[in-house]
Amino acid sequence: MADTDPPPSVTHDDDEDDDDEEFDDDLDDEADDGGEPPASSSEAARLEAVLRRLTADEVRIRVHQVTIRGCDRTRRAAVEAAVGLDLARAATVRDLVRAAAAAGDRLRRLGAFDTVSITLDAAPPGIPGSAVVVLVDVAEARGRAAGDFGVFAHTQTRSCSLEGSVKLKNLFGFCETWDASGALELDKTAELSAGVQMPRIGAIPTPLVARISFLSDDWLKSSLKEHLMGVSVGLLSTMNHNLAYNLTWRKLTDPTRMSSNSVQEELGHSLLSSIKYAYKVDQRDSSIRPTRGYAFLSSSQVGGLAPGSKYSRFLRQEFDVRVALPLGVLNGALNAGVAAGVIHPLERGSTGSVSPLLERFYLGGNRPLVCRLGGPSSLLGFKTRGLGATESRTYDPNNSDNGTSSSPELNGLGGDIAVTAFADLSFDLPLKPLRELGIHGHAFVCAGNLGKLTECDLRKFPVTDFLQTFRSSAGFGVVVPTRLFRIEMNYCYILKQLDHDKGKTGIQFNFSSP
């Protein structure tokens, strides 16, 4: 964020030369990232040359004090933790410039301040040597609350959902973020979650992240109802790394008593304890419409850690790679991505199952191809959980509804191995009003497949059959980005599907948060 105040004047002892004065003025502009521009290009070039010389040479300097100003609601410990110790320990001009830039970036990422300014001033009289005082000025953000609300129509399930979220920032002065979100799909799904994220403070070595969630889900045309309550606690959180412990209680029921034999083994209560590590890098210029850059996600989850767990221990590994290449015509860009996941048992359970039903991979649904990283899941044109192995539901003679359909319903079993890939070509539309609103067109092709592990040994997995049974779809559409959500209106054409897959050629609407 740019600072609107000009950097303070710098004074020095008589034994310091003019170069130090020029450096101080220039460093103010560098760390401040928003001081007033030089009066002329020649002066700017002169100051830049001085800074290059001072940072190239080992010019010694001593920081006498780091002063933080502007904290009213924010606790001082939170700002001191973000500033760090590198500023006070800087011994050269080069170290001081780097430390000031890094501290300013960390303060801005807290999201609690409108402006951040780091400047230099002379040390108090009587302090010997080339000592300076570092001034850290912050202006706290005025608005601490934000909320979103939306109504979405889902063409595949022919239903509507209400979704909303609320965020509170810096409520108790620790630069923490409190958030709550909910989604209600009429007669289908209800989901609530709340969490807090607190930055590193004092002796705490890592930011604190905790979240609690509730879910009630009616699986599409499968007679199953899922109830979930989970708690997640972050153990390590940095810009690229995240380590969390998850404890989840689930209840899977079948009110119709018609689920398949494999599903009946999974009915009832279960407690899943797991540790999940994720490494994420996202260098794309935008998550809404990337035109250049790359992104990578790798997540590893070890589940079944609780003593006496219903499920045996397993390893869930996922990868997601994205790349965006500019085309130079109509602001066009080619986005391509590949995602893969596998669930591998660390031991075989007493029931002989390789993985829990609720932890398996399911493809299909309305998730956009380009936006967020998250492993294999999206395959446009197919319904949610509408792809992969199925099993016929059983017949209950006590249920009079069994005979209402001539074709038996099927339970989707998901897969232990999943692979998806896509290519998406985005381009500007010819109408200028649409371009100014960010509305653009795109064409896409995507493919994916699910596989089931019948043996614990991955080397026995039938790779050839897996590749030959890939499902695929293609289409085109219009993307409408808004402040609250991103809308895709697509025409999807199914290129390949197998028996019992729930794919359909036609119009599809996709919604996602920006």
From TrEMBL:
Keyword Transcription: no
Coiled-coil ranges from the UniProt annotation: none
Compartment list: Plastid, Chloroplast outer membrane
Residues covered by the Bacterial surface antigen (D15) domain: 198-512
UniProt key word Plastid: yes
Annotated keywords: Membrane, Plastid, Plastid outer membrane
Protein name: Bacterial surface antigen (D15) domain-containing protein
The species this protein was found in: Sorghum bicolor (Sorghum)
